[in-house]
Amino acid sequence: MLDFFIKNLFFKIMKSHLIAILIFKIKFNPIQDGTYYFDMTTYVLTKLLLKNLNNKHSVLDMGTGSCCVIGLTLWKHLKCNVISSDINTDILSSAQENIDLNCAKIKLVHSNLFENIQDDFDVITFNPPYVPTNEGNRSKLSEKFKSQWDGGLDGTLIVDKFLNEFNELKKPIIAYVGINSKYVSKEIILTLINSKNNLELKKIHEHRFLPIQIYVIKKYIK
User: Fold this and answer.
1) Euclidean distance between CA atoms 174 and 124, whole angstroms
2) CA 164, CA 155: separation in Å to the nearest integer?
3) Domain extent for 74
4) Of 45, 75, 58, 39, nearest in space to 122 by CA
5) Which CATH number is 7's domain given?
6) Which in 81, 83, 120, 201 has the greatest CB count within 10 A?
């Protein structure tokens, strides 16, 4: 009963226009049915990025989401150069509206992971879809915005694809990848990272109360 109450409370917070504005201090258009302004991982990831990055960084905000929260926050508060991307055209349309609302100089790219990314960047931020398909279906998560949450059978499908492509990049890059351990355990993520020969885990940031880990991963050129 308590878990049900907490889960519903978080969903209400994630869909609150006022709370989103207060936390991130940027403007937002109203969200569409089936989506949200942010989730717990976005919140923790953004707070860490604001501490670790500065205006000299060029950021690829991968899987930006319908509100472009991470990209807009880094652009506004740190003056980072930001390229935001997403695979879902409906999400991209909504993200562009929020970029325009904030008069932000953010380039938006329709891309499946790195497929259409041509710009230079030295940091990647990614809050990937990690909810196992069956669990998302049981929770009646949006079919239209399935690309935001569906991590495949065990939640690792997109994470592993990302790490494979990240491993093949031709220059040194740092990636900040946020995962909710309620869905995918730390042990599984560490196994995936360690299986890539050009990647090194630099640090894991764990939130004190929320089940969120941010994996800081470096791509090496050997």
Assistant:
1) 6
2) 16
3) 2-219
4) 58
5) 3.40.50.150
6) 83
Query: How confident is the model over 89-119, as pLDDT tens digits?
Result: 999 999 999 999 999 999 999 999 999 999 9
| Cα Dmax for the chain | 52
Tokens 């109450």 belong to residue: 5
pLDDT value, residue 2: 40
End-to-end CA distance of the chain: 52
Lookup result for tokens 């403007």: 27
CA distance 181 to 204: 12
Q: Which two tokens stand for residue 144?
A: 């239209």
Distances (CA, A) of 124 to 15, 76, 82, 90, 141: 25, 17, 10, 22, 26
pLDDT digits (tens, 9 = 90+) for 151-199: 999 999 999 999 999 999 999 999 999 999 999 999 999 999 999 999 9
**Residue 140 DSSP symbol:** T
Number of domains in the chain: 1
Residues 47-100 have pLDDT tens digits of 999 999 999 999 999 999 999 999 999 999 999 999 999 999 999 999 999 999
3-class SS of residue 170: coil
* 66-97: b (≥16 Cβ within 10 Å) or e: bbbbbbbbbbbbbebbbbbbbbbeebbebbeb
Bridge partners of 85, per DSSP, are 62, 109
